[in-house]
Each structure stands twice: as C-alpha cells, then as structure tokens.
Amino acid sequence: MTVVSPFRGWRYNPDAVGDIASVLCPPYDMITAENQEALKRQNQYNIIHLEAGEGLDWNVSVKEQYAATSGLFDRWMKEEVLRQDQEPCYYLMRHSFELGGKNMVRLGLIASVGLEDYQTRQVLPHEFTEAPAIRDRVLLMESLSANISPIMSLYRDAEGVLDRIFKQVMSASPEIDAKDDSGSATALWRISDSAVQSRINEFFTGRPIYLADGHHRYEAARQYQLDRHAEDSGAKAANLAHNFVMMTLIAFDDPGLVVLGYHRTLNGVPEDKLANIKAKLEELFDSEPVSGDADALVEQVTRLGADRRLLASVDSGGAKLLTLKDSAVGPDWGALSASEAWVLEEQVLRPELGDATLNHLGFIHDHVEAVARATDGGLQMAFLLKPFPLDAFESIVGGGQRLPRKSTFFFPKLPTGLVINRIDGEI
User: Fold this and answer.
1) What share of the chain is helix, strand, coil (3-state, %, to 5)?
2) Across all residues in the chain, what is the average pLDDT?
C-alpha cells in the first residue's frame, strides 16, 4: 500500500536569496545549455546550481560535477540559504499560468510518497524509461542525498475530499507568493496541522497514484532505495527517508491540469518505403485535404478528435485530416487502439520500418516548427496529434499498460526549487 506522508522540507530563506521566483527553474530534462546559463545569471542561488541538466556538455565528468554540487548544497544549508522546517509538513502549491489567452490555475500537494515496485500496482507508470537518464539521477541523489525536483503524479478525487481541505488551507495567507517575468505565479502554503494531515493520509490510503512526469526520477529513487537495502538490511525500516520520494500530487479533475499534443516527425525513409507508409495510411484512415496554418490544424485535430480517432498528416504536398476507419481496427489491437500514436507507430510505421522505426521517427512539442519543416521539405512528413485524453490515460494505465513513448505533454512543467526533500535519516 502506498504511503503518502508529510516531511520536513528544506526551503529557500527569502532574506538570503531575495525574490523566490528568481531561484526557481524547470525540471532538469527541460533545461538547455542556453537557459542554464541564463538561470545562473538570474540569481547566484538559483536551484539550477543543484538540479543541473540532462546531457549537458560539462567541462568535468558528471560524477565530479555532482561532487562539486554536493559541496555547494552543504554550504547553502550551513549558511542558511536553505532552511529546514522544524515539523513535518505537507505543502500546497497553487500554480497560475496563461494558456491561449486564458489564466489557468492548478493545485498540487507536495508530499513524500513511499517507493513501490510497479508490480504492486500502487504507483502506476505510463511510459518506459532509458537507463542512462536513470543513472544520471542516481548519481545526483548519491551526491546530495536529496530530491531536488518533485515528480508530477495524478490521483482521482471524484468526491472532492482534498479540494475542500485545500480551500480551507488557502483561506490563510501563503508563505510564498512569487511571480516570474512570464506571468506565471506560484504560491505555497505549509500544512502542519496534525488533524488535517491525518485527513490527507486517510484519503490516500489504498488509492493508486499515476506517474505523469518524472518516470526517470522515480526509477532512480527506486534504484537508490534498493542500493541502500543491499548495503544494510536495517535500511528497509518504514520511517527512513530513502524509502520515499518527493511528489507533487494533482487531481485528475483539476481544471488547471493541461495536456498538450506531442507530435511526430518522419525523415530519412527510403522512397519505396515511404510510398508504402502512405499507402498504409490510406488503407487504415479516411483522409480529407485540409488548409490553414499550423495553429488552425492543431485546433481542428483537437476539436474533431474529441469524439473520434483522428490526426493530421503534413508533407510538401499539403495537409490531410486522417480519421481511423472502424473497419480497420483489428480484434487484437486492445485498449491501446485509443492512441493515435500507437496506431501510427505499431500499425503503420513498424510493419514497414521494423527495428529501424525509431531511427526515422521523431517527437516534437512545437506544432508550428513541425508543419513548417514538413511543408518546405525539411521533413518527409509530420503528424499532428491531439492531447491524449485523461479518461483514456486513466483507463489504459490503470489497466496495467503503458502508452507509446512521448504520448503526453503535461503543461507547464512543475517549478523546481519550492521544496527540497532530504533522503538521509528519518522522514
């Protein structure tokens, strides 16, 4: 059974760092070399100094880099740049951002969550991971003994139990209320009242948690835990912090929970195979030529795809809307047939490209770039996908299956730096 628990978080001291917004950053896998340097210039205490970035070109080895990071972390704690809360707390985050001219607000509960083997079906993954990225995060945890960024996870609260608790919590003034240059605003409340904590604990008892963003960090935390268990049999004690990982838990029904489309590109395919792929698309899908710019195409895919399996294809000859034929769905396709990405990869591309499929298939957030490159011939084809429906996500993942890679783009990414979770000693 998954245990959700308060913890004694480490947080920035505003007297030492100034504007809290200036010390936050995106998760490591969203950080490029360019914005890494910009974040460092923004504030000498920006959390990027601890979080680092995935696959960046360091002047020293990753292990040496993280050893230096460990020394910096120790100094910040000693100098009270970071201070630990004196009592276990849950932390309620309110994150406001703009999307399509609308102001969106989502709530997330930052908590320490017991690590589970996926086979227990208490923590549910939706995608597969890659070993190098997991090892990178293990090295960071070994150096810092801490979770720097929270894993984004989802839960179902159909009765609104936590929503009522959160409204009570937010009736008080937040401890942090920060706004950055993009207009994004983040507020944070501590939940230290033991009675309220007990209600939260009770709510999560026996309730599955769905990983949304942060699979590599979760599996790295699990590996770190198993390494501690191998060193000392006493390390399995339920109250030890390395048996937990920091998450931000968001309700499926939160109106600010946004999923955007994750699009596909195709390139480098021999002409004969490309012709076969296009023929397979015509066999499985009803096609309709469509005009408009990239924004209009995505709008149509999203709107029309609300009640059907639909995507758009774009090449130098123009764009088409592709609607999956009911008659094309094989009896063995199963629940994953709800995913246009799965149909495209497994029923169209892989039969023709085999093990080389991923050599030719790319993934991109930016629909404008994808359409422009496909239109001018820089790509052979681009495929625009609708946001993956959360009801299908819950059903498929809850049923024990994983989605095709890059099926979901939860937007925006959670800010890193609001709370740090030390994973040495007791929780």
Assistant:
1) 40, 25, 35
2) 94
